Structure formats: structure tokens, C-alpha cells
Amino acid sequence: MNKLRNTFLTGYVTLFLIVLNTCYAIGQTAMINTQSRNTKSLNGDWQVIIDPGGGGDWRQVWLEKKPQKKTDFIEYSFDGGPMLKVPGDFNSQRCELTYVEGTVWYKKQFKSTLKSNKRLFLHFGAVNYLAEVYLNGEKIGSHEGGFTPFQFEITNKVKEGENTVIVKANNNRMGNGLPGYGFDWFNYGGITREVDLIETNNTYIYDYSIQLKKGSLNEVLGWVHLDGTQPEQNIEINIPELNFKYKTRSDETGLAKIDFSSAFELWSPENPKRYKVNIESETDIVTDNIGFRSIEVMGNKVLLNGSPIFLKAVNIHEENPYKGSRAYSIDDAKILLNAAKELGCNLVRLAHYPHAENMVREAEKMGLMVWDEIPVYQHIQFADSLVPQKLETMMREMVSRDKNRCGVVIWSLSNETYPGTPNRNEALIELTQKCRALDSTRLIVHVINTQGYNNNTFKVWDPLYNYSDLVALNEYIGWYIPWQGNPSETQWNVEFPDKPVFISEFGGEALYGSKGPTDEAAYWTEEYQENIYKDQIEMFNTIPNLSGVCPWLLFDYRSLGRMNQLYQNGYNRKGLLSENGEKKKAWYVMNEYFNEK
Ligand code: GCU
């Protein structure tokens, strides 16, 4: 009996330690502002094993077994295989990977000489969709979610000299994933963003939040969080340009609250002012470029720095249009953001997932406000027991990474989910409350497309609008739904008449240069799309409390479901620009509207 009991106890304890280690690895939100840390980049060529059949798991390729006896042979090897560039999706790098939704195993070796008073972290900008990470043959953790950073501490696992990282990257769709099975963008898989080794002192500045207090134009409310063996330290925030110093001290948990005031030149699209801010402890220093601005809703208006602003926005997917690949670099960001600026925008909706940090930082630098969104997209299995935690984890990872980016003015927590879905309202209301508890300084929204359009009347309603700072809605009148009357005579019946209304998507498709009857949708003509935009703009004048509009979308982009081989060829053609950057006629209609606003 004792033997059985001991066996049970051993098994239970082992299971508990595995869960703890995995949870810890999954649960550790990545440190922020990696560009200000002591990093060694692992970007570049990685060896890969392409494994669409999933055999790598049972062969345990991460062990990299070698023949021991003359009769031994091993039926896998990274040697002799192809290389892939990291960062970068794997689909666009090799012809045989174009449509793969499955597993690619990545391998990279690095040398380490870690001193005793230092710590070492392995940091990923993103891996889509599931990542399992092994160091020297030992699993160090896993991460789910294709668009947010994660890290693992490897201080006590790294070897002196040569080390090997192996990453299983899998972009199979998951029914209870975020997103779920269906989504209207290309499912780029792989190690899509940067990978860095980050070395820190034993106690380092793990995290910090430095932004204006909600509703204030001069008071900063925030915190600094140290992690390590010396949590109680003197902390200093200094802003050299303002000749400003603020001193405080962290407590036994490493936390130091911040509360100071200063006269800031406020960030705005016209003047995207940011300050060099040094965050110093006794054992670490981190420098960030931080802007200070206020965003709030007052009645039926959106206020930036206390003044009403009309949000002239555009939707952008994270795709380099010229390469047909996942965007990740500063150059990619500049292509997309310069096009948004040229259109006349002051905000970019980064659909439908957190884009690379490069994109968020470049937008802020260029004076473009950012709408940051998690891929809670259409059909989500809210009643699945794992989904609420996934929702919260992804929201926390997005907020954690971008919370010091003043350019980010909106956290968007869902797009086109459906009120009747089991547990959808409960899960998203709880998520909204958790997000607001985490960051009360930004707008929080849910995007709905369940409005009813009958007899040229819009009925806009949804339980989530009780919790959303904007009445954000997607509508495709003129494309998916024909007009039922004169656009200028549209009636609106908006539940929550006292909230700002934001048209977060509208538009229609056109193939640049397509010829055909301009009054028939089936020819994908520019003129048909142009007329949709003209009619939509006419209708905008009928919308009460309209606080902004956001056409879908900036560039034509890849989406497998777009299979009309005369006009789409695997592209969603709602772009105002073709994938070659050619301006369609509708571009000029939108540009004129924004310039007149
Ligand atoms: C939806 C959805 C987009 C999609 C668009 C379309 O509103 O939010 O992701 O691409 O419609 O059908 O083109």
C-alpha cells in the first residue's frame, strides 16, 4: 500500500512541478523596450526541418540524437536541410512552404559566457501561432498566440560556450484559438519577429508604466517594477530635456509607484513630441522615448489633449504589399505608415492583431494614433474552458508591450463577434473590465457588425456597447448589402445616442485597372468602388455623433478565401491601393474627404 501511495505522491508532485514550470514559462509577460537592453540578436539564418506531417514530435527532434553504434541511424537532421531567415514568416520564403499550415522546426546555435552576477533571457517578438522552445534538448516553455512577445529565463539552463535553441513553430488553426478557424487574412506562420538574448543584472528593471494620468495634461501616474534579489532600491526617473528628476524607492516586492507633474509639450499628430526618459535603479538603467498626451471620451466627442478630434483612420493588415509577406521591420512599417499619411490619416487601425512593435513605435514617431487590437475575430469559442484565459493573456501581453506608447489611443478587444454566441457577452465584458483595470487611460472598444439595415434605416445595438467607449461598427453598404434608398436619407437608430460613433470598416472591392460595366459589382471596376465611397461619404453626414471613419483598407492583401481568379487571385481587393501601390479611383475620394475634414 505504501509503495502505491509513494508512487502516487511522486507522480502528483512531478505533475505539479511540470504545470508550474509551464505556467510560469507561459505566464511570464515579456520585459518591454528590448531595444534599450543589453541584447544579442539571434536574427538571421536558422536551420529548419519542414514537418507538415508532425513527425518531429514523436521523433523528438529537439534531442538531436546522434548514432552511437555502427548500426545506428537517425531519421532526422537539421544538417543538410534548408535555412530560413528570422524574423520572417516561413510561407513566403520557400515555394514549398507557400500554403503550409503546420510545423516548422527552427534551430540556432549561440555561444554564451554568462557571468555569475548576470541573468539571461530568451526573448521572442512573436511566433505564429504555437511555439515550443527547447534549449540544449530541454523544453524551456511554450507560448500560444501569434502576435505578442514572450520570453523565458535561461540563466540556470544556458551552458558556457555552445548552446542550441530549437523552436517548434506551428500555425495550424485552432478551434479554441484566437483567432479561431476562420479569418480573412493570410495565415503567415513561423518566427515572424525578432529573437534576442537579453542579459541583465541580477536585479533589473523588469517593467514600468509612465503615462499621463487619465484626464490630466501634466500629471504622470505610473510605476517601476524591479525583478531580482535586491527589490528595494532607489529609483530615479529623469527627463534631461526638461531638466527634471523624480526620485522614489521600490518596496520589498520591487514595486515603486510614480506620481509627478511637469509642463510637457503634449504629443499630437501635428506635433508628435516624445521625450528621452531615463528610468534608473541602483543596478539598471533603461531609456525610452515617451510622449505625453490625453485621450478621452467626453459626451459624444473624442478629445485629444482636451480638444475634440475627428479620427481620420484607415485599416492596415501586417503585410508588406510588395513582397506578399508578413511585415515586421522598420522599413515595412514605413511603407504602410507613409501610405496612411499620404491618404490624410491621423490614426491607423492595426487589424486584427497586435502588429510588430516597430509599427507601433514608427506610427507614434510619425504622428499617427494607433488602434491596437487582439484577434478576437468573428467565430470564437467563448464557452470553451480555455478561451477566457487565452483572452486575458493576449490582452495583457498587448497592453504590457505597448502601455508606454502614447500613440496607442485605443485597445480593441473584439471584432465582429456575435451576441448569441454562448458566453460571448460574459467573457468579453469581463475582459473589458480587466483591461480597464490594467489601463484606464485609453479608450477600450468592441467592433460590431450585427447592426440591422432595413428600409434605409440602421439599427445599431449590442450589449457590448455598454462597455465600449465608442460605438464602433463595420458596415459594407454598397458592397455586401445594396443600398435601400438615397445614402443622404439614411436613418440611424443608434442605441447609446450619447456615445461617439466610429465607422471602423466600410468599402468594397476593385481590381486596379479592371474594365467593365461600372454599375455592376461583378467586374471589380474601380468606378464601382469609387461610387461606394462617394455614397458612403454622403451617408456619413446622416450619422449622429460621428467621431471618425476608417475605410477597409489601405492595401489589397492576401487572403485564401478570395478565389475569383479573374479579379482576386487570393487577394482581398478592398484596398484603396493595389498591392503594387497603385492608387485606385476611390483613393482620391477618400483623400479629398480627409483633407476637407
Ligand atoms: C469584415 C472583417 C474584415 C474582412 C472584411 C471583408 O468586416 O472585419 O477582417 O476582411 O469584412 O469582408 O473584406
Task: Characterise the protein shown here.
By secondary structure, this protein is of the alpha/beta class. The protein folds into 3 domains: 34-201, Jelly Rolls (Sandwich); 203-292, Immunoglobulins (Immunoglobulin-like, Sandwich); 297-596, TIM Barrel (Alpha-Beta Barrel), CATH 3.20.20.80. The chain is built from 8 helices and 35 strands. The strands form 9 sheets. An 8-stranded parallel beta barrel has the order 21-24-25-26-27-30-32-33, surrounded by 4 helices. Strands 3-2-4-9-6-7 form a 6-stranded antiparallel β-sheet. The longest helix is centred in the first third of the chain and has 26 residues, at 2-27. It is globular and about 80 Å long. Residues 184, 352, 415-416, 449, 474, 505, 552, 572, 574 line the site of alpha-D-glucopyranuronic acid (GCU).
What is the CATH class of the largest domain? Answer: Alpha Beta
Strand residues, percent: 25-35%
Tell me about the biggest sheet? 8 strands, parallel, barrel
Bound chemical compounds: alpha-D-glucopyranuronic acid
What is the CA-based Rg, rounded?
25 Å
Oligomeric state, counting identical vs distinct chains: single chain
What features would you highlight for this structure?
single chain; 597 residues; alpha/beta; Jelly Rolls; Immunoglobulin-like; TIM Barrel; 3 domains; eight-stranded parallel barrel; six-stranded antiparallel β-sheet; 8 helices; 35 strands; 31% strand; binds alpha-D-glucopyranuronic acid
